[in-house]
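$ fold --in a.seq
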Amino acid sequence: MNSFSPGFRGRSRSLADRLPPGQYPTESFPVLSAGPTPRVPTETWAFTVTTELGDTHSWTWEQMMALPQQETVQDIHCVTRWSKFDTHWRGVPLDAFLEDVETAADYVVVSSYGGYTTNLPLEDLLDGKAWIAHTYDGYPLSPEHGGPARLLVPHLYFWKSAKWVRGLRLTLEDDPGFWESVGYHNYGDPWREQRNWGD
């Protein structure tokens, strides 16, 4: 199924209206990572949702690719102050993974191959706000940009869009991830410049 997300943005808005405070626009796509780049073959890749009760729901690469696919065009914003407009992605909305999961959780800890984690409110992954993205600009997502699949949560700073995603752990209480534990803002709204804990 090919469809544009409710968050699809046309070109009618001026670039100034789309640039959060403190950001600058770039045509490039900088590569920033905290450690080595994992190389995860799609043959061994898996994505697992674990509830607060320990119940698990898992998908292989083939099973993920059989889910409804969606194309979306989004502006992305990095905490290091660059913004890139009209980025083209293809992937599976998080709603498809979570629709049959019973949970009372309000929060999520996202884990990645390589050990990286980040935390988000569950509501920020639902209702067409987030995807597991596997294609960028018409090509399979490269390892440097988080391939074979990464989380895409474009309304938050891009460190929340965890590269090399491998799973979600649903939690009743907020549990800060890697960057949040060393001083990055717990939420990360670019329009409120939530870069650090004190912002």
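$ fold --in b.seq
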Amino acid sequence: MSRNSAVLVRGNSARASTRRTGGEFRATAWLLRHPLFAFVPALVVLAVRQWGAPAVSYGFAGLAAVLVIWWRAHPASFDRWAAPRLRSARRRWTVYRGRRWQRVLDDCELTRENRRTGQTLCPRVLRVRSVTPSIDTLTVRMVRGQDLQAWTDHTPALADALRAERVAVSRRRPSVLTVIVERRNPFPHAIDATPIPESAADVNLCRLDVGDNEYGGPFLLNLRGKRLLVVGASGAGKSSLLWNPLRAAGPMIREGLLRVWMIDLKGGTETDRGQALFHRWATTLDDAIDLLTDFRDSMVERQAWMRAEKVRRCEIGVDTPYELLMIDELAMLTAYGDRSAVREALRLLAEVLTQGRASDHGVAGYVQEPTKDVVDVRELFDTRICLGVTAASHVDMALGDGARDRGALADEIPGDPDHAGIGFVIDTGSRLPVRFRAGWVTDTDIDDLTTRCAPNQASRDDNGPDEGDVLPFPGTTHSANGTSTSKEGVS
């Protein structure tokens, strides 16, 4: 029986009335759900009576001028605070309400007809969030008799009706859905690799430009003091987030201010071209354990020096460079190797992840599957990026609970090369997902980086280290005056 129907009783029989609830009561209920439509006009009338129509008009004109100036003068703060609210309100009332919304759902067979009254029952939009220009997140209450499957079956038709790239639907709570409308792809073309700065003075490890975000600005990656986890299926573009940060920090590598410790357990195929850049390089599990042990020992040594010198935070220099451990295909180190080796690797990795921040020992891991069975130390990575993945559950595993419902449709990113490097990251301020695209790095770009930024170029052998070997770890001790002394002498 419809909730808008009365019941007439005649003798021992009962039937539902075909009359609808009075329009005045429906209007009252609508105003109760949208009190601003009554409050704002009433406030305007009171303001006109108090100060006069010209003063109120000037006030509205001034408010509009402030918004325009804010929009033009400081786009970053406007896009964060004002634009999502204004965009959400505009799209709610122009796209997702009224007869237009009802016609769209009716054409897509997502409405139902009340058999007694003949009234068309339309799912109601409870909330619209347009955090970014390209994605709308709707909270929709289904009509009685519908379920998630009914909506899932019609999402392709709904996407075409809304002229959107794609539509994704998930169940939020009983009778309520989350509908994500991706209106357009903000990255129709590949982005060039990050330019290599001229000098180390131009590099800021807290703001490495590695691509573009969906607002048209640079996508800035913070490596210093952070533990980075990049999740993405095969071919999703994880290598873009491996090489672009190195290109953005290339002069620091060349001048010995940044030392890269690389573990590539895919036989070295991904990183062989950049071998000259690395302070240490391992391509087998045994070598990786040795490298991890030495990296941990380097951290402990730095901590001991900091205690002796009463230093709480290191300044990056030749004697105290930033140490960056990069692990390509983390799963081979934390899940799929020999059990004893995996346990040792997890122990060492957990020690570094929990203690390395103050001593300037950072970690960047790259993995295809982010489950706890594969990456047991997943929660110790405080910066997580999700590229294209194969399962919707991987999005929340990578970015946190509810990330997909807030618009991080990483599982909807096509797996072809045209979409490689596109992903989502959680904004540290608003805690909302932001889409980005990392630059496309070619073999020529890697060769250029190696030629221009390889450290100690003159002292390297022409043939370089042998494949799969762990590069020699220089035994280093720090003197009381802060200089660094190696076995070969003072550096």
